[in-house]
User: Fold this.
Amino acid sequence: MIDEEKIKQAIKMILEGIGEDPEREGLAGTPDRVARMYGEIFAGMDDDPANYLSRTFSAEGTDMVVEREIPFYSMCEHHLMPFFGHAYIGYIPKDRVVGLSKLARAVDVYAKRPQIQEQMTAQIADAIYEDLDCAGVIVVLKAEHMCMSMRGVKKGGTLTVTEARRGVFESDHGLEERFFRMIGIR
Ligand SMILES: [Zn+2]
Assistant:
């Protein structure tokens, strides 16, 4: 559960720490606003992807299901700066499929936590593989990290691409090729 009072105090201290006056008119409501916003952008802390992925329905003989360009917004756990981009998911059902919006919900559960992109990719793949009980899954995330764009090396526009494969995607590279053709990358 999010402790908004604690976040409010912390934001006030950050403002004091950079030499600002947290009581001035423009900043007076900021700690409160940020605390409420954190409740929303870290809502995945209290959520479980199984809440969405376990709602399946039967669809026998279904081939690869691909959902592309699912937008997500997350927070890098090293700098507490946003990273954001798109998720691409392909899975091979055994005999059950999940509603397409539920894949996006599962992405959101992991995006709305302090994250690193590599770990988020693996967590989404594991959740779909286990909770959906499918034959295999592949997850690709493409994202821009504000901690790279705004500070440090300042390489704005650089995209970080990560991939995780489970089940049949680990052994069958033909499937992987087909997935990349379906999402329009190769
Ligand atoms: Zn970072």
Remarks:
- Residues 76, 78-79, 81, 145, 147 surround zinc ion (CB under 6 Å).
- Residues 4-41 form a domain with the GTP Cyclohydrolase I; Chain A, domain 1 fold (CATH 1.10.286.10).
- The beta strands are 56-58, 65-76, 82-92, 96-98, 114-115, 136-145, 160-167.
- The chain has two domains: 4-41, 57-182.
